[in-house]
Amino acid sequence: MNARLPLRAETAISVASPLEVMARLRDHFVEHGTVSGTDERWTVAFDIGEAEALACDGHVRFRVAAADPTSLAYLQWGVAEHVCEFAPAEAPEIVWKGGVIPGAPLPYFREMRVLRARQITPRMRRLTLAGRDLDRFSHGGMHVRLLLSPETDVKPVWPVMGKDGRQAWPEGPRPIHRVYTIRRIDIAAGEIDVDFVLHEGNETPGANFAREARPGDVVGMTGPGGGGLREADWYLLAGDETALPAIGRMLEEMPAGKKVVALVEIADHAERQELQTKAELDLRWLSREGRPAGTTKLLADAIRALDFAADASVFVWAGCEHAAAREIRAHLHMERGLPRRNSLIAAYWRHGMAGEVENSD
């Protein structure tokens, strides 16, 4: 394995069909990294490290390597999660040698405290959270999972490292979790900004937390994660208000000389924000004019109306409601013929349902 990746862990997992499990893993990993080798032994190189699989008599031996504890823990988690997914009936026992000690705090977890809050627009509230050792959250993804107390004045338990490499939970009230974007990070000050859309309704723990947050309130955080932009001549960024924090951060980090078209769906004109960038920006606000979120085709129709060549010169990033993401994905790949490697289309939420949606391209 790569000598520049000094942190290592390994495990041998007994399964009935090692080659079948390896094949399914390889087919999954090829979408996220570069795979090389044979059916019996292959290696996949990710942005965060490497994983190696070797078929042995009645089991698969895995070795993972990374440059930092968070990346190593992510690789352990990924291997364990997908082996259990691809061999569910066997309930394979997974025990790692090396890596984080079982029961120890997760290297990708931080306990954060609210410093301040302010209103950005009528429906967008920004919380500044403070924590220690935030350098790893400045790269490798801009999304985090916030762990929120299920009840007022009740501190939940925080996850720890399980022996199989996945999260384990001590006894006690578990937090509610939601995914958000780090809008701004200041490593030296130990601060991050997170923007919350103030959704209406009872099943909105993130919005409720943002409305009621006071200095000193505690929240857990794991991460970072989420895909970013690939190199291209110009970019199309599209999303509703839930993706606006990510679009705003990507624009701020975009270098001069790049061209960007940004399509942002908002409730009404009061939700417009000042977005800064060094790139050449064509910003278009798409107002629902009072119509509920998730009930229009503003984003999909706006993308259809754009005149652009679906080739290697463009990268499309979109974050929005599930049905809109599905329609945008189909239009780009099936109608325009845009290669899948030239897009990242994420379903941030689903109309009529509470919670997260795990669906991205």
What does this structure look like?
By secondary structure, the protein is an alpha+beta fold. The chain has 3 domains: 92 residues, TATA-Binding Protein (2-Layer Sandwich); 117 residues, Translation factors (Elongation Factor Tu (Ef-tu), domain 3, Beta Barrel); 116 residues, 3-Layer(aba) Sandwich (Rossmann fold). It contains 6 helices and 19 strands. The chain has a 6-stranded antiparallel β-sheet with strand order 2-3-4-5-1-6, with helices on one face. It has a 6-stranded antiparallel β-barrel with strand order 7-8-13-12-9-14. Helix 6 links the parallel strand 18 and strand 19. Helix 5 packs parallel to helix 6. The longest helix has 18 residues. The chain starts with 6 loop residues before the first strand and ends in a 12-residue tail after the last strand.
In which range does the helix fraction lie? Answer: 10-25%
Could you name the CATH class of the largest domain? Mainly Beta
Task: Please compute the radius of gyration using only Cα atoms.
Answer: 21 Å
Question: Strands of the largest sheet, in order across it?
Answer: 2-3-4-5-1-6
Number of domains: 3
Question: What's a concise summary of this model?
Answer:
By secondary structure, the protein is of the alpha+beta class. It contains six helices and 19 strands.
Helix-strand blueprint:
Layout: E1 7-14, H1 18-29, E2 34-37, E3 41-45, E4 49-56, E5 59-66, H2 69-86, E6 97-98, E7 109-121, E8 124-130, E9 143-148, E10 160-161, E11 167-168, E12 176-186, E13 191-197, H3 205-212, E14 218-225, E15 234-239, H4 244-253, E16 259-266, E17 280-287, H5 298-305, E18 314-321, H6 322-335, E19 343-349
Parallel strand pairs: 15-16, 15-18, 16-17, 18-19
Antiparallel strand pairs: 1-5, 1-6, 2-3, 3-4, 4-5, 7-8, 7-14, 8-13, 9-12, 9-14, 10-11, 12-13
Helix pairs in contact: 5-6
